[in-house]
Design brief:
alpha+beta; binds adenosine-5'-diphosphate; about 625 residues; 22 helices
Length: about 625
């Protein structure tokens, strides 16, 4: 059956939203979106919401997709570490917020050597290491090591798995003796022009066994050392509490208040977290640009544009310095938590803390990425809905005692859509729902679409109250309605206010441009040997002493090194990461200077002028 959709309506495809569907559906109701739970093939939608990755949407021709192509890989433990390592090499003082990391088994020798050198300098506490499977998540397969060489003895059982080994941050800030980390949400709105926002509210996840610095005795206690919710929820000590500042999962703001109560300055902590986010985004954006560039869009069709909610896991050291642990490309947007209702029996129940954070996050993200006209349309619907809700609340105070999602559900209008003469039926249904709302306060409503006019439909038994507020109804854009909309939970970080701080880190963006410019016709495959040779020739590196033979050897070497480093991504071409290595090697030969950054800057400037690419274009 074809649905009738007004041309102003904002449409959303939730056919691949899966575990995100609940929270997205709340937003559908709140913003009056038109939801297509089974997808919309011919006409497409304004927004496509996927649970995991862009691949699910390769046929999309327009609209905005909530995942960037390739972001999953960019945020993987290895690629993220690699991006941050390179930035640390270039800007050692700025990129000191990520623990030193090695890729195993490929860098096992380096791991042992470097660890030995570092440990020799340490007097009191010897460094512990945390080893994580390359493709793992939710704390799975993670273990702690006191000695790097012990990796080999534990490795045979894990043969075939690649790991990252990382310096374990043992001097962490504790609350009531428990270790915790923050889940900070960041919205990457667009790459060109670059714009990203941070969510002002987030979550704090606590471990469930009081923390002690790692010793041989406690090194295996994952409920002490790991803060993952998915892991700790299995602990008998996991505490579900509805109180903001209690329990094993809390809101970020409640922890910040606690930090203030401890006599520290939470504002400074937050500013430092914002800087970590900015620097991390600057490190990964070049990779994401390359991935988007390589994505095959059906020839002759406009591709979609992308946005994404990212989840940053951040730990605080005992001096409150934030340390980035990882970036999640698909942070959980589930609003449920698993609770044991009787011994051995668990049940999913709505988690008010998750809802308090995730619903505004998704709602404001949707508003953020819409065109100004569509956003206005949604805001108008939202205001009307909230006005209506306010009136209903004044009709029956008992609504106030219900959770926001119950209330959201209660006031929804229902439209099946598409069938002729459906209006009368809908009005009847709206009336019936409203009556039930007042009689029973127990509606279960399946709304996909709201029409403005239908908000004029008033429950019969609330007539007298509504009439006393007639002015409100006929003044839909009045000031008091404006005041109903709380301000967005998202705060822009780039371009304003951090453009100046961030733009100094643009060098990798310029290298990414060289790479994209030099990819052959089959850009999705990566850089072939002939494209690499053409790049070298066009930049006239022959004149700077690079022979054709040395260029070919360099190409083969890098390809082999990267195959070895990450067999999952092996191919016959150069990835962007491998190309970056080539750039470092060539810049060392052709533009020797005191620092890596200086060499790379001279190299990039030289290439840009030979390839006629303007500097700092992005
Ligand atoms: P996963 O993707 O499997 O969740 P993480 O990198 O997030 O892996 O690590 C899981 C948990 O381990 C984190 O939530 C944190 O509590 C702890 N952790 C991870 N890395 C470190 C580290 N370098 N120092 C201290 N604790 C860490």
């Amino acid at each position: 059956m074809k649905r009738h959709v007004s041309k102003h309506a904002v449409t959303i495809d939730t056919s691949k939203a899966k575990s995100n569907a609940d929270v997205v559906r709340l937003c559908v109701k709140e913003l009056g979106l038109v939801e297509f739970p089974l997808g919309r093939k011919e006409l497409g939608c304004d927004i496509y919401w996927n649970e995991f990755c862009y691949n699910d949407n390769h046929a999309t021709v327009g609209g905005r997709v909530n995942k960037f192509p390739g972001m999953e890989e960019v945020c993987s433990k290895m690629t993220l570490s690699r991006c941050l390592d390179i930035m640390r090499d270039l800007y050692p003082e700025d990129y000191d917020f990520y623990p030193c990391t090695w890729y195993l088994p490929a860098q096992y020798e380096d791991f042992c050597k470097e660890a030995e050198v570092k440990n020799a300098k340490k007097r009191k506490f010897k460094q512990t290491y945390i080893v994580k499977p390359y493709g793992g998540s939710s704390g799975e397969g993670i273990f702690l090591l006191k000695e790097p060489k012990n990796y080999i003895s534990s490795y045979p059982s894990k043969r075939g798995t690649c790991h990252v080994a990382q310096e374990y941050v043992s001097n962490v800030y504790l609350i009531d003796d428990f270790k915790f980390d923050f889940r900070i949400y960041v919205v990457l709105k667009s790459l060109e022009p670059l714009e990203f926002h941070i969510c002002k509210e987030g979550l704090a996840r606590f471990s469930t066994v009081p923390y002690k610095r790692p010793t041989k005795k406690n090194i295996h206690e994952s409920f002490m050392h790991l803060t993952n919710y998915s892991l700790n929820k299995r602990s008998k000590d996991f505490c579900h509490s509805e109180e903001e500042d209690e329990g094993s999962k809390r809101t970020l703001s409640s922890v910040m208040r606690r930090i203030d109560m401890d006599g520290k300055d939470s504002r400074e902590v937050w500013e430092n977290i914002e800087l970590v986010v900015c620097k991390t985004i600057m490190a990964i954006v070049p990779e994401v640009k390359v991935a988007v560039h390589k994505t095959i869009i059906t020839p002759g069709k406009t591709g979609p544009s992308f946005f994404q909610i990212l989840g940053f896991d951040i730990l605080l050291m005992d001096d409150l310095k934030p340390i980035l642990l990882e970036v999640n490309s698909s942070p959980s947007l589930s609003m449920d938590s698993e609770e044991e209702v009787s011994p051995g029996v668990t049940k999913y129940v709505r988690s008010p803390k998750d809802e308090e954070v995730k619903f505004p996050l998704v709602r404001d993200t949707i508003l953020l990425v819409l065109s100004p006209n569509k956003r206005k349309h949604c805001e108008k619907k939202r205001r009307k809905r909230l006005m209506h809700l306010k009136k209903l609340m004044s009709c029956n105070e008992s609504v106030l005692s219900r959770t926001s999602s119950d209330v959201t559900t209660c006031v929804q209008m229902y439209e099946d859509g598409g069938e002729e003469n459906v209006e009368d039926e809908e009005d009847e249904e709206v009336n019936q729902q409203m009556s039930e709302l007042h009689l029973h306060m127990d509606l279960d409503c399946a709304t996909n679409e709201m029409e403005e006019e239908k908000f004029e439909t008033v429950p019969p038994d609330s007539d007298h109250k509504l009439q006393t507020q007639e002015g409100d109804l006929h003044n839909p854009d009045g000031d008091h309605e404006e005041a109903l909309l709380e301000e967005s939970c998202l705060k822009q970080l780039y371009p304003d206010p951090y453009q100046e701080e961030c733009d100094q880190f643009h060098i990798l963006g310029r290298v990414a441009k060289l790479y994209m410019n030099s990819l052959g016709v089959r850009k999705s495959a990566g850089m072939s040997s002939s494209s690499f040779r053409t790049f070298i020739r066009k930049c006239e590196f022959g004149k700077k002493g690079l022979t054709s033979a040395s260029v070919d050897i360099m190409y083969l070497d890098l390809q082999r090194r990267w195959d070895n480093m990450n067999p999952d991504l092996s191919g016959l071409t150069l990835s962007f990461q491998a190309f970056l290595d080539a750039c470092f090697e060539i810049s060392k030969i052709c533009f020797p200077a005191a620092t890596k950054l200086e060499m790379l800057e001279n190299f990039v400037g030289h290439c840009e002028s030979h390839l006629c690419l303007r500097e700092n274009e992005d």
